[in-house]
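User: I'm new to structure prediction. If I give you an amino acid sequence, what do you actually give back? Let's try with this one:
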Amino acid sequence: MEQASRLSMRWIVGKRYDLFFFIGSFIFTFLFFGLYKLVQSYGFLIKGDSILITYFIFTAFFDHPHIFQTFSRTHLDGAEFKKHRLTHTLGIAILMVLGFIITGMGYEAELIVFASVFGSFHIIRQHYGFLRAYKGINGDNEEIDNWIDYGTFYTGMFACFFYDYTDITSPIVIYKSLQARFPNLPPDISEIMWSLFLGFLFVFLVRQVWRLVEGKTINIPKILLLSTALGTHYFIFFATATPFLVAEALETAYHDIQYQGWMMHYQKSRFPKAKNLIIKWIGFSLLYGLVVGVIEVYGLMQEGGWAMWLFVPFTMLVIYHYYVDGIVWRFSDYPDLRKAMFEKK
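Assistant: Good question. You get back a string of structure tokens that encode the predicted 3D arrangement of the chain. For your 345 residues, that looks like this:
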């Protein structure tokens, strides 16, 4: 009993919910890798390109549905829409125009790569948000632990991030003739970050042992989140070598399910009296994802040309999602929302 009491296991929603959506959904990274390898190995079962098959399933049923869910926070929530009205209206319009200008200048491939880089940073920030949440609800706020936890997380995530973007072969092949030229960062950046991460990881492990020796609690949800976030990124960027579109699916699938779980929790907490709200948003998000998935894959099959113009509005909505998510979930600006989402009824 004494040993069990040293394990702190408070969850955002509940144990099963959190373990499936916020932590255990890392399994989708490996499922997509398995799907890609399966289609490669058994091409006679599914005629076509293994990259496009993997990417279509990812973008239609995972990635763009989670993009659509953002609008339940930015536009369905009247208080939020009023607070940032210009961002959610004029801001979107400006992004659309900017996207068409960039495409008209012939930089559509570079725009896609930029969105991918921005997306990687966005995913890191989302994992960081869950890390902070699990530290907060478990009372894990000692200054030394904050330094060690955040240092371990960020050096590990950016070691993977910089490894991927300092090992660029120019041009970057998005799909066949659709290629982008991107600056190659010095490889020393990745090596420095990796060395820092290994140092932080050692200190982190020693700190957990020392907490046990001192009779303090061990934050299990925090450790699980750190393990899955860092583990999946290591697998994607260090342990495997996959084409650009497949790597994008591997990195983002965990994040997508994590976000869907978060948005369902938000919708239930923010609009408790709305009937079937969660089901409706899931249904509309899947329909949106299917439409966008067909358009994107068609554009890729055309390998550029006029079809790439169809990419533009959806690419810019993705960038809008990356940007606005850093604004609408600042709980210091929304104390009522923090209470609704983190205080058990």
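You can read the tokens as a compact description of the fold. Here is one thing that stands out. The two ends are 27 Å apart (CA to CA).
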